[in-house]
């Protein structure tokens, strides 16, 4: 497995404690998750029906403000795994540094992968990939600048896994344009990563290929039931967006007091430059708070946002030591 956040088992091996003793801030997952409520017995015991799946697709179209063709999958990662099935191998351009699964999946499928630093350098790629907002630095691009890439690339994939809190950045309303594919994650913003739910939006032909490749029941009945409920809950989404904005400011202030410099971030994580990221990680880990470091940059430390006040208090105490 490639290096990722959420590797709490490694933290436990090194620093002890049970999983429930830890605050895992190594991921960009909302730690105040959507209240799922009750799920019917049928959602657990029956295969999902076509009508139920269609209802989930409609809920996603509502949340993402689009009328484009859409397919539900087992997380955005499932869509990434299926990308090589959309077209024959060629040259893939990836705006980097970014989520490392794209390069790994495409390379394994025989693609010539080139990581580039600017949008213009994606010109001429058979497959161009942009994560917007980007993981891990939060860099983002205006929709018009991304759409300007379309004539010059074979297919453009925009990963919007962290776009829920910034809907103005989303290309979901334009996803039915030929050559454009938009990926969305459900689990991050709604704090339900274990549900394994995500979506791909694009042209009818691309969505049909992904749907066929994913099989007849790509998501569970429980994911459908909870997804329908959450994606229609506009009030919860609006309140969460406002809270995350406040919490980003709060976390940045705590980091600034440590002498850390804000490099960037999105609504669910912040990236800081520190004198020694591994030392900072260990300092927090001794208080059972896990963070993310990066092999390619020893100064970078990424923190997700704490959940309730008890987590904020524990983080503050750990930083003060």
Structural overview:
The protein is 36% helix and 19% strand. It contains 11 helices and 13 strands. It has helices at 8-15, 41-45, 50-64, 76-82, 101-108, 143-147, 204-214, 221-231, 234-257, 277-285, 309-320, and strands at 23-24, 70-73, 91-95, 112-116, 127-131, 155-159, 180-185, 198-202, 261-266, 269-273, 289-290, 292-294, 297-304. The radius of gyration is 20 Å and the shape is globular. The mean pLDDT is 97.
Order of SSEs: HEHHEHEHEEHEEEHHHEEHEEEH
Largest sheet: 7 strands, mixed
- The first-level CATH class name of the largest domain: Alpha Beta
Proportion of residues in helical segments: 25-40%
Fraction in beta strands: 15-25%
CATH superfamily placement of the largest domain: Type I PLP-dependent aspartate aminotransferase-like (Major domain)
In terms of quaternary structure, the protein is single chain
**CATH fold topology of the largest domain:** Aspartate Aminotransferase, domain 2
Indicate how many domains the architecture comprises.
2
What's the number of helices? Answer: 11
Low-confidence stretches: none
Distance between the termini: 34 Å
Q: Mean pLDDT score, rounded?
A: 97
């Amino acid at each position: 497995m490639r290096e990722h956040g959420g590797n709490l088992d490694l933290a436990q091996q090194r620093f002890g404690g049970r999983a429930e003793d830890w605050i895992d801030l190594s991921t960009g997952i909302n730690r105040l998750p959507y209240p799922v409520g009750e799920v019917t017995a049928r959602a657990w015991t029956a295969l999902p029906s076509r009508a139920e799946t269609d209802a989930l697709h409609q809920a996603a179209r509502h949340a993402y403000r689009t009328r484009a063709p859409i397919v539900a999958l087992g997380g955005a990662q499932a869509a990434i795994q299926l990308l090589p099935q959309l077209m024959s191998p060629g040259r893939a351009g990836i705006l980097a540094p970014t989520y490392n699964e794209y390069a790994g999946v495409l390379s394994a499928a025989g693609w010539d992968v080139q990581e580039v630093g600017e949008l213009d350098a994606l010109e001429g790629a058979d497959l161009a990939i942009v994560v917007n907002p980007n993981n891990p630095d939060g860099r983002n691009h205006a929709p018009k600048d991304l759409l300007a890439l379309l004539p010059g690339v074979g297919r453009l994939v925009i990963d919007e896994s962290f776009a829920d809190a910034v809907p103005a950045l989303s290309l979901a309303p334009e996803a039915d344009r030929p050559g454009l594919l938009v990926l969305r994650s459900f689990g991050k913003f709604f704090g339900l990563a274990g549900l394994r739910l995500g979506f791909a939006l694009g042209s009818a032909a691309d969505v049909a290929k992904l749907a066929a490749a994913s099989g007849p029941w790509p998501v569970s009945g429980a994911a459908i039931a909870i997804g329908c409920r959450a994606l229609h809950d506009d009030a919860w989404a609006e309140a969460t967006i406002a809270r995350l904005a406040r919490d980003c400011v709060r976390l940045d202030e705590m980091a600034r007091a440590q002498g850390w410099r804000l490099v960037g971030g999105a609504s669910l994580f912040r990236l800081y430059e520190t004198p020694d990221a591994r030392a900072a990680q260990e300092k927090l880990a001794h208080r059972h708070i896990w963070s993310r470091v990066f092999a390619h940059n020893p100064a970078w430390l990424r923190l997700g946002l704490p959940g309730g006040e008890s987590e904020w208090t524990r983080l503050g105490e750990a930083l003060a030591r």
